[in-house]
Specification:
There is one protein chain. A hairpin with a 7-residue loop joins strand 1 and strand 2. The protein is built from 28 helices and 17 strands. The longest helix has 56 residues. It folds into three domains: 147 residues, Roll (Ubiquitin-like (UB roll)), CATH 3.10.20.70; 395 residues, Glutamine synthetase/guanido kinase, catalytic domain (Creatine Kinase, Chain A, domain 2, 2-Layer Sandwich), CATH 3.30.590; 132 residues, Up-down Bundle (Four Helix Bundle (Hemerythrin (Met), subunit A)). 51% of the residues lie in helices and 12% in strands. Strands 9, 10, 11, 12, 13, 14, 15, 16 and 17 form a nine-stranded mixed beta sheet that branches. The radius of gyration is 29 Å and the shape is globular. It binds adenosine-5'-diphosphate (ADP) and magnesium ion (MG). Magnesium ion (MG) binds next to loops.
Length: 728
């Protein structure tokens, strides 16, 4: 075994789980480090408290003079918790979270100092932001970005720093982050949904989008991970033969959680509790060393912040337990990858889940209204929705045999399929009293309020209705949920606005009753969007063919998929709803496409380096051992050596062929990279990386993985899959 590999494995095997003591009940520490409503009541004046609550629940502005009171209260609380610094905490388009810490400490002359934190510092900060991606927006204006407080997501203390969730915008007001468009989309869906709710209940004043994400990840011992340059630099293995035992026995899924992983999870969960992240579920996933963690769902903006924060602290706590967390969608070839299901719904301030069937025909008509509008929104914008989950890493998952395909379809289950079939045939125009009674009694009235068991069966659907929410399953594990959530809420908002205007039109112009109008519009929606409904096996080839016939898109790669982000339809959707202007949309597209290029470029370099500098020299070394052996046999046995050296000679040749295979393909790849780098047009460059550079990865890998099976295990330089996945 190579020395590096030997030491890494030895280190791993001697690990003792960190002991975690949980002294207090989780409910007692929940939110202890969050400036939440309870804490606010304690630290803020009545006026300041009311002002923040108003901002949270009604979106009202906070007066500058009140901000001073709030910052003072926040500071007192933070100091009492031992915080020394504060930071605006935001999510730039790098995908990671960003922070710039300032001390509360300030000198006031005469050798005196105080802790200070004014309203101005709470509300706005100017980080040195010139190196965050902005897709050219700031180059054309001033190289400045501002962060501004988002009072709807509470401040929290992490370590000794008070973190204030903020948006991040350019000097001229363009969004430079994930949160700004999300907040605008949530605002749009709130308004649109409230207007539609009024058909059913005049008391509804606010509709919140909810999000419950499920985070999948791998835990790999840090020593093993560090011994793999590909994991260190790209987050995934670029080489490695599959182990003799993979996941075929399904013995990991829902199995006993290994001790070390369990200690990690408990530590992580305690940290989550303190930060108010309501984590609830933990279990093993399908692949060895793969796990999942899910919270109780929350308001979407808060849930997005929580997920970003969680990914951050997962990394940090992993270090304490000598683990490395892999968030990559496909860290190991041939082994299941990781996703992040986004469970989504809409609920009213009167406590009604709009995607949960009710107990009366009226509440069920409301449910069907939101249900069918969502389906129509997805159908009309399937390419845009697909674009929100596109990334170099998620490309490995979509369409492979473990995750939903790149085709967006909606699964709704048998019962609701039947309901839609009935509704599709309601009379065009005014309904007869008999028909209405029939519908109420036999169709709308018959939706059982618990659909859960019937609708959670199809795991192959990218967008499935699961009883009281939709589950967007194609989202990748590294994704910032804001991206899919912004689009999902935006398309539903737009759809609800159109729906309302169509229903109102029928009421005003055709003198229809409200119910008649709603039934009429829904009927048409079912007819025009039922092509997106699919109940069968989404992984099958048959579906690809069928989907093509139905006119659904199947954008398999990121460069192809991303184009929908800048389609006319997308630009006008975002513009109309005030979510993003054309410049913002286009700059985001540019950033994402550039990120794609950079990722593949880095992978190409790393792969070339490992193949040439680690694999080939090892192969040569082993080949020399064989040659030496053959020479020895010849010396001893003379002419009859050939019979004895038969296998060795074959091996020597095989190794040569694979060395040649690696070298020629690495050369080809390097040349393709050079050619791609010269392409000015970003779209064409991405497509060159996708179609010319990337396919060579598999060829190089093929030869290297073959060599892994031929070469003496003693000298193989890379930690093997078996060791990465099964060392506990
Ligand atoms: P699973 O999908 O693993 O079977 P569940 O369906 O119970 O598990 O829930 C998955 C996730 O969906 C959880 O994070 C849960 O909080 C979330 N969820 C449940 N109801 C809603 C809702 N109304 N809106 C958004 N997310 C929800
Ligand atoms: Mg789920």
């Amino acid at each position: 075994m190579s020395t590096l590999r030997f030491h890494a494995i030895k280190e791993t095997l001697t690990r003792i789980p960190v002991t975690i003591e949980e002294k207090e009940r989780r409910s007692a520490i929940f939110g202890a480090n969050v400036f939440n409503e309870a804490t606010m009541r304690q630290y803020l004046t009545n006026e300041a408290n009311k002002s923040v609550l108003d901002a949270i629940h009604n979106g009202s502005k906070i007066d500058r003079s009140v901000a001073d009171h709030i910052s003072t209260g926040m500071k007192e609380w933070a100091l009492s918790k031992g915080a020394t610094h504060y930071t605006h905490w935001f999510q730039p388009l790098t995908g990671a979270t960003a922070e710039k810490h300032d001390a509360f400490f300030e000198t006031i002359g005469n050798g005196l100092a105080i802790e200070k934190f004014g309203g101005g510092q709470l509300v706005q900060q100017e980080p040195d932001a010139s190196s965050f991606p902005n897709g050219g927006i700031r180059n054309t204006f001033e190289a400045r970005g501002y962060t501004a407080w988002d009072p709807t997501s509470p401040a929290f203390i992490y370590g000794t720093t008070l973190c204030i969730p903020t948006i991040f915008v350019s000097y001229t007001g363009e969004a430079l982050d994930y949160k700004t468009p999300l907040l605008r989309a949530l605002h749009a869906v709130d308004n649109a949904a409230v207007a539609v709710c009024k058909y059913f209940d005049k008391n509804v004043k606010k509709v919140n989008a909810s999000l419950g994400w499920e985070q999948e990840y791998f835990l790999i011992d840090i020593a093993l991970a560090n011994a793999r340059p590909d994991i260190v630099l790209t987050g995934r293995t670029l080489l490695g033969h599959s182990p003799a035992k993979g996941q075929q026995l399904d013995d990991h899924y829902f199995g006993t959680i290994p001790n070390r992983a369990m200690a990690y999870m408990r530590d992580l969960e305690t940290e989550c509790m303190l930060l108010g992240i309501p984590v609830k579920t933990r279990h093993n996933e399908v692949a060895p060393n793969q796990f999942e963690l899910a919270p109780i769902y929350d308001e979407a903006n808060l849930a997005v912040d929580h997920n970003s924060l969680l990914m951050d602290i997962m990394d940090k706590i992993a270090a304490r337990h000598n683990f490395k967390v892999l968030f990559h969608e496909k860290p190991f070839a041939g082994i299941n990858g990781s996703g992040k299901h986004n469970n989504w719904s809409l609920s009213t301030d009167t406590g009604v889940n709009l995607l949960g069937p009710g107990k009366t025909p009226m509440s069920n008509l409301q449910f069907l209204t939101f249900f069918i509008n969502t389906i129509k929104a997805v159908y009309d914008n399937e390419e845009l929705l697909r674009a929100t989950i596109a990334s170099a890493s998620n490309d490995h998952r979509l369409g492979a045999n473990e995750a939903p395909p790149a085709i967006i379809s909606v699964f709704i289950g048998e019962q609701l399929t039947n309901v839609l079939n009935e509704l599709e045939h309601v009379t065009n125009g005014k309904l007869s009293p008999q028909e209405k009674t029939d519908l109420k009694l036999n169709v709308v009235g018959k939706i059982p309020d618990v659909l859960l068991d019937n609708t959670d069966r199809n795991r192959t659907s990218p967008f499935a209705f699961t009883g009281n929410k939709f589950e967007f399953r194609a989202v990748g594990s590294t994704a910032n949920c804001a991206n899919p959530m912004t689009v999902l809420n935006a398309i539903v908002a737009k759809q609800l606005i159109d729906f309302k205007s169509e229903v109102d039109g029928l009421i005003d112009k055709k003198d229809m009753k409200k119910d008649d109008a709603i039934f009429n519009v829904l009927r048409e929606y079912i007819k025009t969007s039922k092509n997106v409904l699919f109940e069968g096996n989404g992984y099958g080839e048959a579906w690809e063919k069928e989907a093509k016939k139905r006119g659904l898109s199947n954008n398999k790669t990121t460069p192809e998929a991303l184009k929908a982000k800048v389609s006319k339809q997308a630009i006008s959707l975002f513009g109309e709803l005030g979510i993003m202007n054309k410049v913002e949309v286009e700059s985001r597209y540019e950033i994402e496409i550039e990120e794609y290029v950079l990722r593949i470029q880095i992978e190409g370099r790393v792969l070339g380096d490992i193949a040439r500098n680690h694999i080939v020299p090892t192969a040569v070394k082993y080949q020399n051992v064989l040659i030496e052996n053959v020479r020895g046999l010849k010396e001893i046995y003379g002419a009859s050596f050939k019979k004895l050296a038969n296998e060795q000679l074959k091996l020597i040749e095989e190794i040569s062929a694979h060395i040649e295979g690696i070298n020629s393909n690495v050369t080809k790849m390097t040349n393709e990279r050079k050619t791609a780098n010269k392409v000015e047009d970003l779209e064409k460059k991405a497509s060159a990386y996708c179609n010319k550079v990337k396919p060579l990865f598999d060829k190089i890998r093929y030869h290297s993985d073959k060599l892994e099976l031929l070469i003496d295990d003693e000298i193989w330089p890379l930690v093997k899959y078996r060791e990465l996945l099964f060392t506990k």
